[in-house]
Amino acid sequence: xxxxxxxxxxxxxxxxxxxxxxxxxxxxxxxxxxxxxxxxxxxxxxxxxxxxxxxxxxxxxxxxxxxxxxxxxxxxxxxxxxxxxxxxxxxxxxxxxxxxxxxxxxxxxxxxxxxxx
Length: 117
Fold this sequence. Notes:
GO terms for molecular function: DNA binding. The protein contains 7 helices and 2 strands, in the order H-H-H-H-E-E-H-H-H. The protein has 117 residues and is mainly alpha-helical. The protein has a two-stranded antiparallel ribbon with strand order 1-2. It is globular, with a radius of gyration of 16 Å. The N and C termini lie far apart (38 Å).
């Protein structure tokens, strides 16, 4: 027996962006790749709370949504580097604005999050 995938709701721009950026680490991956951390091991060090497997899955999803690309160098062991596509680059100002909002409301958000855990 197989599991049938349900079609996501894609009724508006928020649905679309949610579908593309859904995932705990995706915005941080895009941000760090933009800052120059391009190798999987670099990204793992920047996001130590994420498993390598989860990061690989989310990087693959970002790649399938054409936000990142990767270069595989023909060396042993294989070397992989990620880069932002122009499409992915267009998200950086938005991610920066979201991060700034979080910084501006840091204490309030921390209090609310800790209260609800």
